[in-house]
Every structure is written in C-alpha cells, then in structure tokens.
Design goal:
Layout: H1 2-18, E1 34-37, E2 41-42, H2 47-65, E3 68-69, E4 77-94, E5 103-117, E6 122-137, H3 141-163
Parallel strand pairs: 1-3, 1-4, 2-4
Antiparallel strand pairs: 4-5, 5-6
Helix pairs in contact: 2-3
Length: about 160
C-alpha cells in the first residue's frame, strides 16, 4: 500500500513538473506597452487608402498585439510608413461568354513600413516594397482595396511578431 502511494505521489509530482513550461521568443520586448500608428505618407492620388489603412492598422495592432494606443510622443513603439504605389484595375480574368462581360480585376498597394522601439531607438521590424493585393469583380473596386489593405495589415503584424 505504501509502495503504491509513494509511486502515485512521485507520478503526480512528475506530471506537475512537466506542466511548468513557457515560450522563448515571439513575445513583445518587455518595454513595449503602447503603440502609435502614424498615418502613412501617401505618394498616390488615392486619399482613401491612407485613412483606411491607418484605421485598420491601428485597430489590429492594438488588439492582436495587446498594446495600448498612445500619441506618437508618448508611445513605446511607433508604426509608420509610406504608401508608394496604388494600382487599380489590373486585369486578372475575363469571361469567355459573349453575353457576359464581367471581368476580375486586381488592386495592388505597395508600402514601405517600419516599427520603431522609441525607448531604445531600435527598428524592431521594417519592410520595403510590401505588397497587398485584392481581387474584385468589375465595378467593385472598394472590396478589392479593402482586401489589399487587410493583407498589408496581416503581413505587418506577422512580420512584427516574427521579430519579437
């Protein structure tokens, strides 16, 4: 009886010890608690891209990375960049039916982006020429633009997480 009790206790201790684990890397630097997403400089003729990208990026960076929003002067980290290209109406596919004139087109947005740790002055992550694309049906450019912006936001967050 004593022997089986001791064995059970030893097994329980080993099982509990095995539950003590953690992840190394992949987390935020300990000094990053707040973020400012600065609207990207816009080298394109489309003002909607700048405002939509800033809004979506702010919301997703704060929620998915668990950071508090802050002004640029008070934030621990700053996300900033430049929209370098906005190409719309790129043909992707056409219908082969003579009575059906629908086509698939693509929006392509290109940005340069960096995330700066303002406490240390170090660039945490940067990417030049990051491209987001979105396919849309003819006369529905908004859905293609939103899909391209979502891809850019997802790539920025994934890139930042891979470096931290």
């Amino acid at each position: 009886m004593r022997r089986s009790g001791a064995s059970a206790l030893a097994l329980a201790v080993l099982a509990l010890a095995g539950c003590n684990y953690g992840f190394a890397g992949g987390g935020l630097p300990p000094n990053i608690h707040s973020v400012a997403v600065v609207p990207f400089d816009n080298d394109t003729p489309s003002p909607n891209v700048q405002s939509e990208l800033a809004t979506q990026l702010s919301r997703e960076v704060e929620s998915r990375l668990g950071l508090r929003p802050a002004s640029e002067s008070r934030a621990d980290a700053v996300v900033r960049g430049r929209i370098t290209r906005f190409d719309v109406g790129i043909p992707v596919a056409y219908s082969s039916q003579p009575n059906n004139t629908t086509a698939q087109r693509e929006v392509r947005i290109t940005v340069d982006v960096e995330i700066l740790d303002q406490v240390t002055g170090r660039v945490i992550w940067s990417r030049k020429g990051l491209v987001g694309t979105g396919t849309y049906s003819e006369r529905d450019e908004d859905s293609g633009r939103k899909a391209a912006e979502t891809k850019i936001v997802n790539d920025i967050i994934a890139g930042a997480q891979s470096q931290w």
